[in-house]
Amino acid sequence: MLGCVSCSSGRTLEPNEIQSIHANKAFLNEETKCNGCGDRFPYVEGIIQGIISDSLFAEWNFVSNIVLSGSIKVSVGTVYHQKLEQEVPVINKIFLTCIDTHTDVAPVYDHGHAFRVISSATGHGAKIGDTQKIDWLLYGRTKNIKIPVWQKFIIQAKEELLQRQYNLSLLTSAISFESFVDTLIEKLFSQKGITQEASNIILESMSGIYHKVHKLLPELDKIALKENKEINKKWQKSVVEKRNTIAHGAIEEVSKEEAREAFETVIRAIYYLAQNTSLNLK
Ligand SMILES: [Zn+2]
Is 9 left (phi over 0), alpha (psi -120 to 50) or beta? Predict the structure, then answer.
């Protein structure tokens, strides 16, 4: 998903664009044009905008790998059962849109092969027994998605944002960056002939993320987050310092803005390291 920096337009990446990015990550710095407003921006910025977008449909799309939709006719006041054409182990969200007159409708998430729709008359819209046409759009996912652990944390941090669990989301964002850094260091160690066991021992014995980011990474691969002053400062202030105060019980409530800022900062920091490492990350 590619989001526009200036307007809310978005589009999916074309297969040839995905190939170009995989073949050469310098392609991420090439410019692309928004179909909506015509603005130009680098691919990497479009990808980041797509991930951090707060457009509701883009957000549910990001945390889902199954999207189904359809149109049904319900009799107001009765429970409607909708069978699904494929198994959806976890239903993330169902959007219902009444096409005719106003009716109160709500989905019941059964997870698996079906969901139900309950409906009720509102007094000024449809009456009990009336037939109502409703469009539905379902976002769901399989239980196990085969992606690296740090990416699972990114998706989890986003799910927690959507569920308004801002404290947890901030912690998960911080953990996803730490997990990404560990993955990067493990790959660099392996490239230098250090065994997986030795690499685990070294990583487990290291205290804190600062040492890994500011000492080990520059030593192993000449990549320094410090060189990007803006991201580095935000990462320290909005992610690490807040993560530590939450973990020690000092902050009671994290605001939506703080949680979103931590999420965006982590995405930007990950892309910065991914673009500047000598490794070819696929
Ligand atoms: Zn645009």
Answer: beta
Domain boundaries, the chain: 2-62, 66-141, 149-276
Q: How far is CA 219 from CA 3, 216, 245, 268, 277, in A?
A: 35, 5, 29, 22, 12
- In the reported structure, the alpha carbon of residue 47 is separated from the centroid of ligand 1 by a whole-number distance in angstroms of 13
How much distance in Å is there from the Cα of 204 to the middle of ligand 1? 45
Query: How far apart, in whole angstroms, are the C-alpha atoms of residue 2 and residue 46?
Result: 5
Furthest-apart CA atoms within the chain: distance in Å: 73
Give the Å distance between the CA of 1 and the centre of ligand 1: 14
Over residues 101-130, the pLDDT tens digits come to: 778 899 998 878 999 999 998 777 788 899
Is the domain covering 66-141 a CATH 3.30.70 domain?
no
d(CA 152, CA 199): 22
Residues near ligand 1 ion, CB 5 Å cutoff: 4, 6-7, 9, 34, 36-37, 39
Taking the centre of ligand 1 as the mean of its atom positions, its distance from the CA of residue 138, in whole angstroms, is 27
Location of structure tokens 């059962």 = 81
- The pTM assigned to this predicted structure is 0.82
